[in-house]
Amino acid sequence: MRNIFLIARREYLERIRTRAFIIMTILIPLMMAGFLLGPGLLMNPMSHGARHLVVVASRPQTAESIREQLTKVQEQQNKEIAESKKKTLKRTSETPSDLTVDVDTNTSADERTALTQKVRNKQLDGVVWATDEALAVEKIPFITREASSFIQNAEIGVGVDRALHREALKAKGLSDQEIDKVLKRVELDPQDALGGGSANPQVTFIASFIMVMILYMSVLLYGINVMRAILDEKTSRIMEVMLSIARPSEMMAGKILGVGAVGLTQVIIWIGTAVLFMAGNLVASADMLKGAISPQMLVAFAVYYLLGFTLYSTIYAAIGAMVNSEQEAQQLQFLAVLPLAASLGIMFNVIQFPNSTIAVWASIFPLTSPLVMFSRIAVQMPPWPQIALSLGVMIVSIWGLVLLCGRIYRVGILMYGKKPTLPEIIKWLRYA
Amino acid sequence: MYTIELTNVRKTYDQFVAVDNVSFNIEEGAVFGLLGPNGAGKTSTIRMMIGITAPDTGQISMFGKPFQRPQLQRVGYLPEERGLYKKMKVLDQLVFLGELHGMKTANARERAIDWCKKLEIAEKLQNKVEELSKGMQQKIQFIAALLHDPDFIIMDEPFFGLDPVNASLLKDVLLELKKQGKTILFSTHRMDQVEKLCDAICLINKGVPVLQGELKQIKARYGKSNIQIQYEGDGSFLEHNPLVSVFNNYGNYVEVRMAPGADSQQLLKMVTERSRINRFELMEPSLEEIFIEVVGKTDA
């Protein structure tokens, strides 16, 4: 035990003092913030601001109706923005937009050319061409400079669609109130028959997805470090000195724990920073997450994160023990990445059907259980024996793998410079 | 008491027999040479002694008891494959290795500094290993093996890659350790280097011991049949001489082995008749020669 501690401590202290660690700790959150905020900052000015549209229709009441609905959609949006601004201190980059809609009943080809020219010259922002011919084929041209702006297209689409529905209903002789009632959307309210909370499934999904991503990212980021740490031992040729005093399994366990602790330190720093920022700025989203993340989810996350991270680090350690150079190691990395990617796939299935056979077995199988069992707990609490079983299986697998790696590693020192084949590795395992 | 005792030790890798039926023991306080050409099985034997691998058959006892890992804290090992953590500072590295051998941090630190002073690299204590020259790294490696004051010191090719100054420094330290009663095992294929240091040897070839025992006895068994001659003039007449069985010309002098039953005085007379002699010395055969003879016999 003392040896494991000494080896882990050395690994931890040596790594945490490196410049790479400090740079990564600062740079990654900056990059993430950039990814999250950057596109928003860049996109908003384009889709908002003052806009001037023209609606062309054969009949004036159609054009008027479309104008009315487009204005309504915009007003509703402005209201939402104002509300979210009031609710949070977050300085949102979204600003209410002014929308001017003109109505035109000249449906000649010349008019269309003229209007198109205006859009091109930026005198207009868009033309909705809702002529009778267009209505007959149920395809309404929208002339714009930003044909690929799907957000704007969707907004306009919703407005036009509503207007035409209303027109059709009006033609059947319904009053405005009746039309409002008919077109009102109904909300579905899922109730958990097993007595689970009635948390918003979307938010639950997002919360578990974030946690799964943290696990996925840390395995990818730090698992490789474990592999490198073991390769380092080989390339620096110090392993023979180390093995003359420590058991190979102690070496492996020490390396995995030491490098793992470095990763944890970094993740804790990142999460801590994120929480600080959220506490100050994102009251609304924090409230939203508060409802979705239960204490049991946090405990489950901590437990499955630690075990999952350890298990995958051990797989990377095994890869490091098998090979002599990083190039060779890269060919074997799929061994670690494949089950991770697979459990990501299964996870989507689990959220849909948390009690399916595949969900149950995948949440017990050690390579998939960290992600899958966690998402099951997030979505719907599985029976305790299953949780206990998945934890037990994982702990046993980790220790078994550490012993196995130790053997591969020890025998590996006898064969420098030669890439082992699978039969050879199996043979190594049998050597005492 | 024997510091280490190997009894009928055998190790195979697949079809390849690395070590076969090796038995020897080293007395406490002795300097022992494990000798043999490259690939003879020396390193394989050592790896079994320190538990990196286990023998297929046979027993190993250390300090009078069957091998157990805690005994390794009393062993200092300098492997043939030298290696240190390159990015680590010298002092940190030595302290770490000392702690692994059961030392307290403060004690390890103190002794590391003492040793570095002794080997004249104290000014490099705060440098990273990768910043040191090869020779300096060797010294650090050497200190790492001795820091925890081991009772049994195993050195695999200790003089490999050392310049003469450092080799002599290392030799002095080892002699001092011998005086302190430490048991030392050398493993090398350069027999001339350890010949002067060893009390006893075991020569192995192709995994099999071919000659072992106390060095003095071994040499006595082979007698003083070698003669070194330094002379002026043409010595070619020695090469095909009935009195001489082996002739080696080293440029400045020649070394010959007498033919069985030949008289060295007769040879001396012959040489004085033909050239001017500066030196004529009866020698013990070198270990290397003995080895070549023994191996030649077993191979044949």
Structure write-up:
The complex is a heterodimer of chains A (432) and B (300). By secondary structure, chain A is mainly α. Chain A has helices at 2-16, 19-47, 60-87, 109-120, 132-136, 150-171, 176-183, 201-235, 239-243, 248-281, 283-292, 295-322, 326-332, 334-352, 357-362, 369-379, 384-412, 422-430; strands at 51-57, 99-104, 126-130, 142-144. In chain A, helix 3 (60-87) links the parallel strand 1 (51-57) and strand 2 (99-104). In chain A, helix 10 crosses helix 17. The longest helix of chain A has 35 residues, at 201-235. Chain B has 300 residues and is α/β, with parallel strands linked by helices. Helix content of chain B is 33%, strand content 30%. Chain B has 9 helices and 14 strands. Chains A and B meet through helix 1 and helix 9 of A and helix 2 of B.
Spell out the blueprint of helices and strands:
The complex is a heterodimer of chains A (432) and B (300).
Chain A: H1 2-16, H2 19-47, E1 51-57, H3 60-87, E2 99-104, H4 109-120, E3 126-130, H5 132-136, E4 142-144, H6 150-171, H7 176-183, H8 201-235, H9 239-243, H10 248-281, H11 283-292, H12 295-322, H13 326-332, H14 334-352, H15 357-362, H16 369-379, H17 384-412, H18 422-430
Parallel strand pairs in A: 1-2, 1-3
Antiparallel strand pairs in A: 3-4
Chain B: E1 2-13, E2 16-27, E3 31-35, H1 42-49, E4 57-62, E5 65-66, E6 75-78, H2 90-100, H3 105-118, H4 134-146, E7 152-156, H5 164-179, E8 183-188, H6 191-195, E9 200-205, E10 208-214, H7 215-222, E11 226-232, E12 244-249, E13 254-258, H8 264-274, E14 276-283, H9 287-299
Helix pairs in contact in B: 2-3
| Spatial shape of chain B | globular
Largest beta-sheet details of chain A: 4 strands, mixed
The separation of the N and C termini of chain A measures 22 Å
Distance between the termini of chain B: 38 Å
Main sheet specs of chain B: 6 strands, mixed
Query: What is the count of structural domains of chain B?
Result: 2
Indicate the radius of gyration of chain A in whole angstroms: 30 Å
User: H/E order of the elements of chain A?
Assistant: HHEHEHEHEHHHHHHHHHHHHH
Structural class of chain B: alpha/beta
What's the arrangement of strands in the largest beta sheet of chain A? 2-1-3-4
The CATH fourth-level homologous superfamily of the largest domain in chain B: P-loop containing nucleotide triphosphate hydrolases
Tell me what portion of residues of chain A adopts beta-strand conformation: under 5%
If you compute it from the alpha carbons, what radius of gyration of chain B comes out, rounded to the nearest whole angstrom?
23 Å
- Per DSSP E runs of 2 or more residues, the count of β-strands of chain B stands at 14
* Biggest sheet: strand arrangement of chain B: 6-7-8-3-9-10
* CATH architecture classification name of the largest domain in chain B: 3-Layer(aba) Sandwich
Amount of helix of chain A: over 70%
